[in-house]
Write a structure and sequence with these properties.
The complex is a heterodimer of chains A (207) and B (92). Chain A is mostly helical and 207 residues long. Chain A contains nine helices and no strands. About 3% of the residues of chain A have low confidence. Chain B is mainly alpha-helical and 92 residues long. Chain B is elongated and about 65 Å long. The chains are: A mainly alpha (207), B mainly alpha (92). At the A-B interface, α2, α3, α6, α7 and α9 of A face α1, α2, α4 and α5 of B.
Chain lengths: 207, 92
């Protein structure tokens, strides 16, 4: 059964085969959990959202017409479950800072040089602390931008699929994605700059 | 394009302005940009080191998030999910 397509598994579930549903869940559970933990940043909330999503999937499968792909429909449900939970929170950022705040600060060649951290290998950049910084940065994005970035850049959905999952146009996906990327780059650059400055300070103190 | 005083000051470059370039960067990275504009952009980057660093760190931001996001589902979360569904889907 593991090699069956989503559609074949769905047919079996509709025919009362619960094991087929378990296969379908196993196929997508890690992806849905990743979305939930990045949207909600709290393992317990993410687990609750995961459970709620697949319960909704089971209940909604009889009405799933297959006009869109199963994965698109699943992620639409999952994103909505997460967004509903976020709406009940009070601490979520609702507005993205102006774009200029994330632009390189280099004025007429007299400002500090930009930190080029792009050629450092992933493993060197991804310490426990920097992973936390990254998740913190993601958390600062308004949820609608966060969802676009996760679906499009982390999960690898196309612009059209992301738009369909979120109920927005492809143009809106592209615009939100661009702003989300710029914002995240700006926040990571600030962090790596701080780290580099701190490293230099430490070296000077040791000398 | 409307010139913002602050950003014009910051990005006074020859040819394609940095701010103009910035707006097209995602399309550039995603390979969705018109080839002619793509050429202008690459020409601009050859002369503008901050913009080149900007593009490279933007690409790196995306790859870092992707790279940091491949962790498996915790086993106990998997088990609790399947238990929960088995319990709640009966009689649905």
């Amino acid at each position: 059964m593991i090699n069956l397509s989503d559609q074949s598994l769905i047919e079996k579930v509709r025919g009362g085969d619960y094991q087929a549903f378990e296969f379908l869940v196993t196929r997508y559970e890690a992806k849905v959990y990743r979305l939930a933990i990045r949207m909600l940043r709290n393992p317990q909330d993410a687990e609750d959202a995961l459970q709620e999503t697949f319960l909704q999937v089971f209940r909604g499968l009889s009405g799933f017409e297959g006009r869109s792909q199963f994965s698109t429909w699943l992620f639409r449900l999952a994103t909505n479950v997460c967004l509903m939970r976020i709406r009940h929170r009070e601490t979520e950022p609702s507005k993205l800072l102006p774009l200029e705040d994330y632009l390189p600060k280099l004025e007429e060649g007299e400002g500090p040089p930009m930190v080029d951290w792009a050629d450092r290998p992933e493993d060197a950049l991804l310490s426990k602390e920097s992973r936390e910084q990254m998740m913190g940065a993601l958390d600062k994005l308004p949820p609608e931008y966060r969802a676009v970035f996760i679906l499009r850049d982390i999960e690898g959905f196309s612009n059209a699929e992301t738009g369909e999952s979120l109920g927005i146009s492809t143009a809106a996906v592209k615009s939100r994605l661009h702003r989300a990327r710029l914002a995240l780059r700006g926040m990571l650059s600030e962090y790596f700059q701080r780290k580099q400055d701190f490293g230099r300070l430490e070296t000077r103190l040791e000398d | 394009m409307e010139k913002d005083e602050k950003t014009t000051q910051v990005f006074s470059c020859k040819g394609m302005e940095c701010k103009e370039m910035l707006e097209k960067l995602s399309e550039y990275i995603d390979g969705e940009l018109d080839p002619k504009i793509c050429q202008d952009l690459e020409k601009h980057m050859a002369d503008c080191n901050p913009c080149l660093i900007f593009v490279n760190t933007l690409k790196k931001t995306i790859s870092l998030f992707k790279y940091a996001s491949s962790e498996p589902l915790p086993k106990e979360v998997h088990i609790r999910l399947h238990d929960y569904l088995k319990k709640n889907c009966q009689g649905c």
